[in-house]
Amino acid sequence: MVIFDFGGQVSMVTGAASGIGAQVARSLLRAGSSVLALDLDQAALEERSASWPRADGASCLCVGADVTDAAAVGAAVAQALSAFGRLDNLVHSAGVIDIETVDRTAPTDWEHQVRVNLLGTYLACREASGPMVRAGRGSIVTVSSMLARSGRPGYSAYSASKGAIESFARVLAAEVAPADVRVNTIAPGNITGTALRDHADAISRERGFSVATERVHDIPLGRQGTVQEVADVALFLCSDAASFITGETVNVSGGQVTW
Ligand SMILES: NC(=O)c1ccc[n+]([C@@H]2O[C@H](COP(=O)([O-])OP(=O)(O)OC[C@H]3O[C@@H](n4cnc5c(N)ncnc54)[C@H](O)[C@@H]3O)[C@@H](O)[C@H]2O)c1
């Protein structure tokens, strides 16, 4: 179902080869936006995006890049501008997870999660916000997690990186608001059907933590969420229907986190 009309717009979506990012890219293309889809895994991105339906006039450009590489992220934004002439939206979904208690987490593993999740968010937002500020319009959506606010054993690096994303997004929102650029964050809960979820479950099993389906009883709506339900909120936040919303974090957790 197409809820919003993004005809003539251009969006950049990171982490677009899989899960939430893939669904956001697909939904934006269907809603009329051209998309610069970025992912570390370019082969998977190209394979996946080949089947995405596109509204008339909407095209998809696939870029293989690491969100922690400032030059590569800057070049991707430049590619979007040269291919499509403008940049209206950024949905930054690229992220990684590992699960281990603090005492057993190697500093390099801790740093990797913070680097991809937090530095990656900063770089994508920094590069994409420049042209938006110059154009005097735009919308940025970052992706944190309900684990930014709920402490669960094993998630120290992940939770810390996600909490910092929310703090960062609030500051950027204040800085770019005078140019009518909005910055909001989605905090997904227990979302099924993504590579990150499968990976988290596999290492949880291995290391003695609970897996996602065992925690469904913690969710008031009584089920896991879908990538479509997260993508719909991302499109809402990018759309003019959210024109007076900025600096906000929206929980998409079936009621599990409400603060
Ligand atoms: N699935 C969930 O339940 C859930 C819950 C809360 C938050 N999130 C967040 O949602 C976002 C998307 O997660 P998902 O579940 O769709 O995961 P996913 O693993 O399915 O997709 C993440 C994508 O990011 C890409 N990526 C990873 N590192 C990258 C890098 N350095 N540069 C560029 N691309 C990179 C991966 O290749 C992958 O395609 C993440 O930020 C994740 O933390 C997911």
Shape: globular
**Amount of helix:** 40-55%
- Count the domains: 1
Number of E-state strands: 7
| Alpha-carbon distance between the two ends | 29 Å
Query: What's the helix count?
Result: 7
Mean pLDDT: 97
- Sheet-strand content, in percent, reads 5-15%
Q: Tell me what the CATH architecture is.
A: 3-Layer(aba) Sandwich
User: Based on helices, strands and strand pairing, what is the structural class?
Assistant: alpha/beta
Bound molecules: nicotinamide-adenine-dinucleotide
The CATH class turns out to be: Alpha Beta
**Uncertain stretches:** none
Q: Which radius of gyration do the C-alpha atoms yield?
A: 17 Å
Helix and strand pattern: EHEHEHEHEHEHHE
CATH fold category name: Rossmann fold
Any overview of this molecule?
- The protein is of the alpha/beta class.
- The chain has a single domain, classed as NAD(P)-binding Rossmann-like Domain (Rossmann fold).
- Helix content is 42%, strand content 15%.
- It contains seven helices and seven strands.
- The protein has helices at 19-30, 42-49, 70-84, 107-135, 156-176, 195-207, 227-238; strands at residues 10-14, 34-39, 60-64, 89-92, 138-143, 181-188, 249-252.
- Helix 2 (42-49) links the parallel strand 2 (34-39) and strand 3.
- Helix 1 (19-30) crosses helix 7 and helix 3 (70-84) packs parallel to helix 4 (107-135).
- The mean pLDDT is 97.
- Bound molecules: nicotinamide-adenine-dinucleotide.
- Residues 14-15, 17-21, 39-41, 66-68, 93-96, 116, 120, 143, 145, 188, 190-191, 194-197 line the site of nicotinamide-adenine-dinucleotide.
